[in-house]
Amino acid sequence: MALQENFYGLSEGVFKACRYAGLNFPPKNSSELQTSQAHVPSDYFGNNFDLSRAMVDKLCAEMKCTRNYLANLYQKFTEKFLSHKPIKHTKTDLNIYFCDYVLTSSKLGASVDNYFVFELYRKPIAIQRKFRMDRSGRLTRFVCNDKIARDVLNNKVKTNTLFNDFLQRDWLNTTDCTFEDFKAFVKKYPRFFSKPVESWQGQGAQIITVDATEDLEKLFATLRNDKRVLEEVIVQHETLRAFCPTAVNTIRVNTIFDAHNVVRILTTSGRFGTAGNVVDNLHGGGIAVVIDPNSGVITSNGITDTNERMSKHPDTGKTFKGFQYPAWDKVLALVKKLTPMLPQVRHVGWDITINDKGDAILVEGNGHYPGANVQQAPDDVGREHLYKPLIDELLNFNKMQVRVLGYRVNNLPDRALSYENCPLRQNVLVNMAMSKLLPDCKSLIDVGCRRGKFAKTACPAGVKYFPVDFKSYDAEIIACDFSAGAFPKVAADACLCVFSAEYAEILPQFLQNMCAAARKQILIMCSPFDKDFQLEYRWNNPFLTDFTEKFLLGVMKGNRFGLSAHYAVNAGVPIILYDFRKISAK
Fold first, then answer.
1. Region for 227 from its dihedrals, namely left if φ exceeds 0, alpha if ψ lies in -120 to 50, beta otherwise
2. Which one of 3.40.50.1370, 3.55.50.30, 3.30.70.3270, 3.30.1490.20 gives the CATH number of domain 170-233?
3. CA 410 – CA 67 distance, rounded (Å)
């Protein structure tokens, strides 16, 4: 009874919060819900109601404070509920399921998609925990993938530029080509594939066929205005084309570049398009299956975004389970080549297909959150256990990268970091480690301080702190437009520059200004990628190279600052310390 009361208390809180948000969310009290639940199987909710009364009250209070979010969530949940095939679609059932979702999400971090695709409402909590949810995905992304480096995979032009040798097809960037280039491309490929430069889940993708009467100038203007990438149409292997000839049927290979810089292949899934679609994504009407990563054989039936399960393709009648993918060894070899090329993005979902020549080719990569749904839904098997030890190891790898700077964080426990115990974010550890590199600093200019994060987490007591940024977030911050060559007219023992040099339009002048302002030391932390820093150079060389470091070293030496320490965080982000020296500027 106590467990039921917890659930009813939560339900009542959900109802009140929804009505507070202006939603017509019956019943007016939980009695109708209790009556309805009496007809629901006991295992529907029984294994989930172990929250304490205090936790229920806390959840209800939080929901009342986030009423707009709750209203949007309820709307999204309703849309998914009505399209979900395995369950009834009555108003009372909707309310029951929504309350259960709030409870499940608060404990496991499940998204609305996770809840329905994995049919969590049918599973006890012990089984639910075996599945990767959105919360796990966000932690994985934080631990593994540099935010700026991910832009290479989010941007189709950058992806194609970096991995051009593995595409085996021609392509054209409409935002950076002439009309003559476009005419030549269309003449060679009158039928071509078009997709937005930045898009996800196959959104906006289409195949365009140009005939002799087409107004090419108008078409070019439209594609250019829409920021489109054009590609030669992939002719896929005949065995894949037999499933769905209208779409490129891809293989999703999820990899992690582990703490030892070894490529680990975690899961492999297949996706197939359906009639009339040019993409195979689940959200675009596609079908997903699970593939044995060792053999390349499909081991499950197919599943759709609405959880319809099928043993055969609905359009062609081809059987899924038991199908052997061609050239499987080439698929695995390809992702092992691709993954080390982007080491700052350690977790990637590679979309691969086999062309008509029997070669494995890259379609695109996904570094934001390589879908958990296609990995686990087809065979209804959770795969969190494949990820957890690798992510835990990378958490500790990041911690050791900070400790190599010589700083032992006092309140960091001796036990290993893991999903469940991660007391400090990595950027806080880095800030604390950087403060150790400036032991004699009595005054500090923090260039690019944002809202004074360094001062809040690591700046020693008694140090005069000058926060500087592009704009003033509060009265204490000195606003300074680095892109225009400006610099604050203050002096200090040291300058701290974290991810700000990238935004200086004239970098030598920016560095010279820092050297003039700092009496003793300059500490620079920079990212290997940035859209605004030396764009043409970074475009073709997307990693921090010796040339870039030599360039920094040369400018600093010319201003009498010599290199005294060099470290790396997360195996890719350098922290460089320069000391003022009485040396010749030559």
1. left
2. 3.30.1490.20
3. 40
Task: Examine the pLDDT at 250 and tell me if it is beyond 80.
Answer: yes
- Closest by CA to 351, choosing from 369, 331, 330, 333, is 331
Name residue 21's beta-bridge partners: none
CA-CA distance, 456 to 476, in Å (whole number)?
A: 13
Phi/psi at 155 (5° precision): -100, 115
Q: What is the CATH number of domain 425-580?
A: 3.40.50.150
Q: What is the DSSP string of 327-365?
A: THHHHHHHHHHHGGGSTTB-EEEEEEEEBTTS-EEEEEE
Average pLDDT value for residue range 303-323: 94
- Our CA dihedral for 204, 206, 210, 211, rounded to 10 degrees, sits at -120
pLDDT for residue 585: 44
CATH 3.40.50.150 positions along the chain are 425-580
Pairing between β-strand 206-209 and β-strand 191-196 as defined by DSSP bridges: antiparallel
Contacts 24+ apart (CB under 8 A), 181-188: 182/216, 182/220, 182/223, 183/216, 185/230, 186/210, 186/216
Strand-pair category, 360-366 with 347-354: antiparallel
CA angle centred on 221, ends 157 and 172, rounded to 5°: 30
What's the mean pLDDT in 361-368? 91
Q: Phi and psi for 32 in degrees, rounded to 5?
A: -65, -40
Q: Would you say the C-alpha torsion 331, 335, 336, 341 has a positive or negative sign?
A: positive
Cα-based torsion angle of the residue sequence 352, 573, 262, 341 in order, rounded to the nearest 10 degrees: 30
Between CA 302 and CA 299 the distance in angstroms is 10
CATH 3.30.1490.20 positions along the chain are: 170-233
Task: Enumerate residues 6+ apart whose C-beta is below 8 A from 463.
Answer: 441, 442, 443, 444
- Residue 222: partners with Cβ closer than 8 Å, 6 or more residues away: none
Cβ–Cβ under 8 Å, residues 153 and 348: yes
As a whole number, the mean pLDDT across the chain is 77
Q: Which residue has the tokens 């201003």?
A: 559
The amino acid occupying position 445 is I
pTM over 0.70: no
Judge contact between 507 and 537, C-beta under 8 A. Answer: no
- Tell me which of 68 and 407 has the higher pLDDT: 68
pLDDT at 382 > cutoff 80:
yes
Q: Is residue 571 left, alpha or beta, with left meaning phi > 0 and alpha meaning psi from -120 to 50? A: left
Q: Is the CB of residue 325 less than 8 Å from the CB of residue 332?
A: no
Percentage above 70 pLDDT, the chain: 71
pLDDT at 527: 56
Which numeric CATH code is attached to 133-155+236-402? 3.30.470.20
pLDDT score, position 385: 93
The residues, ordered by sequence, that sit 6+ positions from 2 with a Cβ below 8 Å of its Cβ are none
**DSSP letters spanning 87-145:** S---HHHHHHHHHHHHHHHHHH---HHHHHHTTGGGS-HHHHTTS--HHHHHHHHHHHB
Cα distance from N-terminal residue to C-terminal residue, the chain: 82
Over its C-alpha atoms, the chain yields an Rg (Å, rounded) of 27
